[in-house]
Amino acid sequence: MNVTIVVAIGDNGVIGRDGQLPWPPTGDLSHFKALTMGHPMVMGRTTFESIGRPLPGRTSIVLTRDAGWTSEGVEVAGDLATALATAASLDDEVFLIGGAQVYAEAIEADVVDRMVVTHVHQSPEGDAWFPDVDWHGWPETSRETHDGFDIVTYDRA
């Protein structure tokens, strides 16, 4: 199974504010849709609630510590290992789409194979940051340059 983080990061490391993206849409959502379509996506409950619904054509697996939490059309997991096992039973490619705690736990557990990062050329205020990563272990393998943002793929060395 390949595990890919998909994230948009401001120049200052911010990824969110009040459960939302801290900038207006950048135009990378069509890339996100094409990348994740047909594959399971693992996300934290706050990220799911900010989206507001399961995204069509993809299985949403929501991580939450609340054993009683449910939402129609999603799988629920109490921890990252369970979420990844559920994803692996569905497909050999899984996408981690947020939030900060999910990213940090996956990086710490050393389960991530690839990161697809939208580098947003802004430094907004926020309350969620991407975890510190030793980027020396993540060489850049592709880059798409756009007005105001770059989409960069990093593969684990």
Structural description of this entry:
The strands form two sheets. An eight-stranded mixed beta sheet has the order 5-4-3-6-1-7-10-9. It has a two-stranded antiparallel ribbon with strand order 2-8. The chain has helices spanning 29-36, 45-51, 80-88, 100-108, and strands at residues 2-10, 14-16, 41-44, 60-63, 74-77, 93-96, 114-120, 128-129, 140-146, 149-155. The protein has a single domain (2-155), classed as Dihydrofolate Reductase, subunit A (3-Layer(aba) Sandwich). The longest helix has 9 residues, at 80-88. It has 157 residues and is of the alpha/beta class. Strand 9 and strand 10 form a beta hairpin. It is 21% helix and 32% strand. It is built from four helices and ten strands, in the order E-E-H-E-H-E-E-H-E-H-E-E-E-E.
Provide a compact summary of the structure:
The protein has 4 helices and 10 strands. With 157 residues, it is α/β, with parallel strands linked by helices.
The helix/strand order is EEHEHEEHEHEEEE
CATH superfamily: Dihydrofolate Reductase, subunit A
The span between the termini is 17 Å
Strand element count? 10
What profile does the largest beta sheet have?
8 strands, mixed
Catalytic activity: (6S)-5,6,7,8-tetrahydrofolate + NADP(+) = 7,8-dihydrofolate + NADPH + H(+)
GO molecular function: dihydrofolate reductase activity; NADP binding
Protein name: Dihydrofolate reductase
GO cellular component, one term: cytosol
